[in-house]
Design a protein that fits this description.
Luciferase, domain 3, CoA-ligase activity, GMP Synthetase, Chain A, domain 3, nine-stranded mixed β-sheet, peroxisome, alpha/beta, AMP-bd_C_sf, Rossmann fold
């Protein structure tokens, strides 16, 4: 194919079936992220960096800087440095980001652990795989961590956010450092952008969660995921704990761009909207589950959203019906769906005038193509294929998992995502479904997302997930799990008839319908379809 640019997005190029995002050149020292963060905090110490929505407490850049330096000093005195792992298992509060900053200052490897992963097997695997030197944990998790501490010569220290008898508190370690030490502190140099900055857990949407070595090369790009012009001296919000890549890069990007963010623990959509109104929020970063809930607000007109300029959301596929509802609620807001993976970072994000429900155009220094998963031929516009992504020098390493690392990239450096998508002539990409979510009925492949889109249009449906129910003769049948809207009467037969009326015969809900009080979600905010598959095939 001839090389050409998108008419709508001239910053893109297209050649031989490959879309290329804008080329961005970084300064040689851009990967020194710890230094850049500390410089930003020092530059405007009176600027409010964090606001706790539950208490209204303000946390300035100066206060954040002092606590993070004190934490870094304590870590250094414990001998923590390059190659050592510290883990932060914190909820969404003002101190969770502090050890993350401290780790970046001294160049150790930072892991973020979901604080509600309290299962003994998960903790045991975590300790064995990561071998942390220090764990910063919530009060409820600390005793469980202690049960899995290693032998005397390999023990990790547990520092508690809060107070718990028998444990050292986070406040105690900060108070051990002197004002002179704080005043003379300097960040460590990172030798190479290939060094590991973080050990992030993958979401587990394609299998058991793995631990990915996230480099400074990825970090220097991804901290710019949210546009600077939407952040600078504005107020934002998210309501997911900083255990996941996207929340960490949002927090770091906000600090670099001098943006205030509100720390909020999600209760329900109405509660969050009251916080948005109270603090006159300008930008929001939302997970897909929060987007779904906000899009179904009973009375959105009850809230003042006039200050919101920008919303970026990600996590899993946002249905067209959901995005249409969002546009109705936020008619003057830049709504930007983004697609990415822990291993590759940001892949696409939607621009202001994107076609709904696009997940956007290729990000900076990113190449994207679609292939036929069976013979690897390149797909043309408006044809669905497996999405593959590549960035310069991409190297995917799973921590202590050589076999998985060797399987990730092909000989040309492409990462096969396992996701189905298509693109239009403008270079906008549209998510279809995960390949593993395709339901095999006789000789046909049924995209679960198409059936879910149809069911979501039913006026009585709040949430839906369609999974494969095994069948002896037909291979698999679609089965729907549904959460109804409050005070609405809907029957299984009504949903089955609705699908039969609107979709081809092969997509009928031959596996049946089951109503739930609540949809199960995994820790990254995605519907836990593995649990649903187990439920439907255990019957």
């Amino acid at each position: 194919m001839m090389k050409s640019a998108s008419k709508k997005y001239p910053q893109l190029s297209f050649e031989d079936g490959v879309w290329k995002g804008p080329n961005k050149i970084y300064r040689d020292d851009d990967f020194q992220v710890g230094k850049r963060l500390l410089q930003s905090l020092k530059a405007t110490p009176s600027f409010v960096g964090q606001i706790d929505s539950s208490t209204g407490k303000l946390d300035t850049f100066g206060e954040m800087m002092e606590r993070s330096i004190r934490c870094a000093l304590w870590l250094k005195k414990k001998g923590i440095g390059r190659g050592d792992v510290i883990s932060i298992a914190g909820d969404n509060h003002e101190n969770t980001v502090i050890p993350i900053l401290a780790g970046l200052y001294i160049g150790c490897t930072v892991n973020t652990y979901p604080h509600d992963w309290v299962d003994d097997e998960l903790i045991s695997d975590f300790v064995e795989t990561l071998e942390p030197k220090v764990v910063f944990a919530e009060v409820g998790l600390a005793p469980r961590m202690l049960k899995h501490n290693r032998s005397d010569d390999e023990k990790f220290e547990i520092i508690v956010f809060g107070n718990l008898p028998g444990f050292v508190s986070f406040e105690e370690i900060l108070n051990e450092q002197s004002a002179t030490e704080v005043a003379t502190f300097e960040c460590e140099d990172i030798p190479s952008e290939g060094n590991t900055a973080f050990l992030f857990f993958t979401s587990g949407s394609s299998g058991q969660p793995k631990v990915f070595q996230y480099s400074y090369k990825l970090l220097k790009r991804d901290v710019h995921w949210l546009p600077e012009e939407e952040l600078h001296e504005r107020i934002g919000i998210w309501c997911t704990e900083p255990a996941w890549t996207v929340v960490v890069i949002c927090a770091l990007g906000a600090i670099m761009n001098r943006s205030t963010y509100v720390i909020h623990k999600y209760i329900n959509a109405a509660n969050m909207c009251r916080v948005v109104q109270k603090y006159k929020i300008n930008w929001m970063m939302l997970g897909s589950e929060h987007v779904n809930m906000i899009s179904r607000l009973s009375h959105p007109e009850d809230f003042d959203f006039s200050e919101i300029n920008f919303i970026r959301y990600c996590g899993s596929y946002i249905r067209p019906e959901i995005e249409k509802n969002l546009h109705a609620i936020f008619p003057r807001t830049w709504l930007s769906q983004s697609y990415g993976l822990t291993e590759v970072g940001v892949v696409t994000y939607a621009m202001r005038d994107h076609k709904c429900p696009s997940c956007g155009i290729p990000a900076e220094n990113t190449e994207v193509k679609l292939i036929n998963s069976k013979d690897e031929t390149i797909m043309s516009p408006n044809q669905s294929g497996e999405l593959c992504a590549r960035t310069p020098g991409l190297s995917i390493v799973y921590h202590k998992n050589t076999a998985a690392s060797e399987r990730t990239l092909d000989s040309e450096g492409w990462y096969r995502t396992g996701d189905l998508a298509y693109y239009n002539e403008d270079g906008e990409f549209f998510f279809v479904d995960r390949m593993k979510e395709m339901i095999r009925y006789l000789v046909a492949d049924i995209p679960a997302g198409v059936v879910e889109d149809c069911i979501l249009k039913h006026p009585g449906v709040l949430e839906v997930a369609v999974v494969a129910k095994l069948h002896d003769e037909d291979i698999e049948h679609p089965m729907a799990f549904i959460v109804k809207k409050p005070h609405v009467r809907v029957t299984e037969e009504e949903i089955e008839s609705w699908v039969e009326k609107h979709l081809p015969d092969r997509m009928r809900l031959r596996g049946g319908v089951k109503f739930l009080e609540d949809m199960p979600y995994n820790n990254s905010g995605k519907i836990a379809k593995g649990i649903l598959r187990h439920w439907c095939n255990a019957e």
